[in-house]
Structure formats: structure tokens, C-alpha cells
Specification:
Two copies of one chain form a homodimer. By secondary structure, chain A is mostly helical. Helices cover 72% and strands 0% of the residues of chain A. Chain A is built from nine helices and no strands. The first copy, chain A, is elongated, with a radius of gyration of 19 Å. The interface between A and B is medium-sized, with 34 and 34 residues. The structure holds a DNA duplex (16 and 16 nucleotides).
Amino acid sequence: MINRKEQIEQTATNLFRTRGFAATSMRELAQSLGMEAASIYAHIRSKEEILQKICFRLADDFFAGFREAVNQPGPVTEKLQAAIAAHVQVITENLAAATVFQTEWRHLSEPYLSQIIQLQEEYEVNFRELLQAGQASGEFDIAETPLTARALLASLNGLAQWYKPQGQLTPTEIVASFSHLFLRGIAA
Amino acid sequence: MINRKEQIEQTATNLFRTRGFAATSMRELAQSLGMEAASIYAHIRSKEEILQKICFRLADDFFAGFREAVNQPGPVTEKLQAAIAAHVQVITENLAAATVFQTEWRHLSEPYLSQIIQLQEEYEVNFRELLQAGQASGEFDIAETPLTARALLASLNGLAQWYKPQGQLTPTEIVASFSHLFLRGIAA
DNA sequence: CCTACCGATCGGTAGG
DNA sequence: CCTACCGATCGGTAGG
């Protein structure tokens, strides 16, 4: 149902999440999979290749979610709510990968390192421009747009470190609470 | 003016910040200090000891700042503002150490690992109780107190990753913007 | 603070 | 997917 390569990547993602990329050895990964370390290389090229796939797939997901949220017609307030919902969805549906992306991207080598930094900046710019659009439309009243965009994104990203699928709050309730808090915080 | 041990810790903090704890070798650290790796052990017991000092010193600073902020008389709103100011101050005055604390604590071994997790939870509880106090006094109107506390802390902690001492915003302006955003977000 | 060195472990390859 | 193995590097110690 799931091929060996995906199994390796999934197991690696969980290990990278708890132990960190640099501190996870290929022998640990192999043991978790019930195989020898050398055998892993029949399926992947390198340890870093796994990290690359995790980071760039997540980045893709975040951008796709944002694009869809923003391309619908309507007031900026609704677009921002949709963007928050999309971001929360990517995280709750990819908990381990989202954590690894957030905390381990620095271990990428060039040119991937520069690329992922660039993508993170672009994503932040997307939110900043959304806030500015709301400012322009008269919906928002924001003193420091860059700081506000960073505060919002940091809050949303923090979700990866406390969300529990079996916890009290459903993703829908989480989205409502984030939206409530930040929309009140920036409403005109 | 500054002894060798502090010099080692400071240099290590900067290396841990950019390369990560696990990926920083004692030989790299030694080279940055202009000495041999073995010589470092005349001043410190182990690589992890450096990380321990970084994490627990920062935790101390955060708790001390919070305590001072909250022990003053006055409305909860002012206490929260003071707590935000204290947290921002600790980060801006210990940029590298704050980043390392936030991202590398998981590499601590027991019993330090459990202790630092405990401290992080306690600190979060402190903020949660402050929010609840404002709720009780009628100053705040918060739907999800735990989520709100986490959002606030994640926003403040994110500062460690974008604050530039030579940047546009002064710490005072940053505190004002965070306070503005969140107090509006939770005001009754 | 240095030289010399330890055992352990690392990511990865050769060859089957 | 395994056995066998590579060179490199790791954190740390002994002894001065």
C-alpha cells in the first residue's frame, strides 16, 4: 500500500523531529525500519536528500494553500481567514514534517539552503501584502505590518509544537481562535 | 576583561546558533578560538555542559523578568505589558543564546531535558494565569486562553529569529507593537 | 594549553 | 537487501 521509499521518508521524518537531523544516524533510521544502514541507499541518494524532500514538499503545500485562499473573491478579511485555515491545515495534516521543516532547514546544503530561505521570505511577504491590502481597503488598522505578519506566522507555526490530534481543540476551532485573536488585533 | 571560559561559551553560543548544537564540533569551536580542541577541556567539562549553561541561564532570565513584571501593583493589562517588555528585553539582549535555547534544548540529556521542558511549561502557565487574571478582572475577553498564551509566546520568541540590533525597530517600539496587537486582540 | 591518541561512530560505497 | 568495509571525524583523556 505504501512503498519502501515513502516508508523510509516517513520514518526518517519522525526521527528527525524528535532527535534532530544532525543527531539522527542512518543506523538508527535503519534499525527503526528493520534493515541495514547500507540497504537504505538502494532507495535514497543521501541523508540530506530526505531533508530536502521534507522541506520543499512542505513549502509547496504552504504556497498552494495560500494561493487558493487568496484567489477567491471577497473582502481581505475573508482571504486572511482562509489563509490562516490553509496554514493550519498543512500543519495539522503534516505534523512531523512541519516541525522538521521549521527546525532543521538550516542543515540543508547549498543551493537548497538559499532556496528554502528565499521561499520562507516569499511566504512571509505574501502575508505582509495581504495585511497591506486590508489596510488599503480600510478593513485593517495596523501600525507595524512586518512585525504583525511575523507575529501571525510565528503563532501559526508554533501550532506544530503543541497540536495533538487527540487533543481538546479541533483544527476548525483552532482556526477560529487564531482568526478571532488576530482579526480583533488588527481590525479597523 | 572577560575570562577564557566565558569566551568559550560565547563563541560556542554563536556557533550553535548558526550550525546547530549537534552539527558543531569541538574542533570547529577550538578553531574559532584559536586553540586546540583538547585544550577546551581545561575550561569546561563537556560540550553539553555549554548547552546546559545557555539554556538554564536563559530560563532564569525569563522567569526573573516575568516575576518582576507581575509583582508590581496595577491592572493586569499593565502587568501583561511589563511581562511582554521583559521577555523582549531578554531576547534582544541575548540574541544568540535565546535562539540556541529555543532550538537546541532537545539535545540536552536527562535529567536536564526533563527539567528544561518543565520550566518551559511553567513559563507558559505563568502567561496563561496572567490572561486568566485579566479575564477575571473584566479587562480581557479571551475565548481560548491556552491557545492565546501560546500564540503570544510564539510571537515573542519568533523575535529571536528576525531582530537585528541595527534594524529599523527599537526594542521599545517592538514592545509597543506586540502589546498593541495582542491587547487589542484580547481586550474586553 | 599542547601533542598524541583512544574507541566509537559517522555517511556512504563495492560487490554481490 | 546484505556483508564487508572505507576514510573521516567525533567527543574526550593521558600526560605533560
